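Appendix B, example 12.
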Amino acid sequence: MLRFLFTGRWLVLLLVVILVGFACVELGLWQFRRYEGKVEGNKVVRVNLVAEPVAVDNVMSTGDGPSDDVQWLRVRATGVYDPDHTTVILYRSRDGVPGVNVVVPLVTESGTALLDDRGWIKTSESGADASIDAPAPPTGTVTVTGWVRQNATGSSARVSDGEARSISSDEIGPTLGYPVYDGFVERTDEAPSASPAPVADDEPDLSTGPHFFYGVQWFFFAMLAVGFWVYFAYAEYQEQSGRRPRPPEPAARPAKTP
């Protein structure tokens, strides 16, 4: 009675179920890998957030970008701000309020500049049409402390007329006339300070995101596909073995008498 499973229709259906199930399992494993990566990354970030600041030259260089294990580590650099080469980072709304971030190079005593994301300021709009009145950074020699961040990639990091949508020393550096540390920092403190000053960025979100639950969902979809195939196969078996009653044939109507 199971010979029907080897017919063309059922073999095609089985193949589809196998392909769908395999794809769902792979997607589930991918989500679990992302979850595990997030967990491991958060461990590094938690350690870095409470570590004492270190000299910028111990972590960053002009050749290679900062590695993953120094992300969100605080570094300290001393130099002079160059506000004439400020880069405005667009589309940085906070709690629904439009705004931008301002990135100002800090030229250190060695002549190498550190790109400092000084923080967020409110604007009338968050896009390229925003009216921007960035507060001036402190003048003279300034000591800046900030979190190490890696460069953004892609078209959003491209600089045009002193504006970009994300921060990358690879894109901002060529617009300056001096060498630049690879990567940038998000300011946490500067001495002496200036008032008013942009709003410093918050600490990173250390949640693991929805990856684990997405992985569970994909595995559930794989089981669901197999379950549907088993259900329909069992229903077909019941019908062919005569265990499932067929619906009664409609009764024939009596012929009309002329």
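The two ends are 49 Å apart (CA to CA). The CA atoms of residues 13 and 229 lie 8 Å apart.
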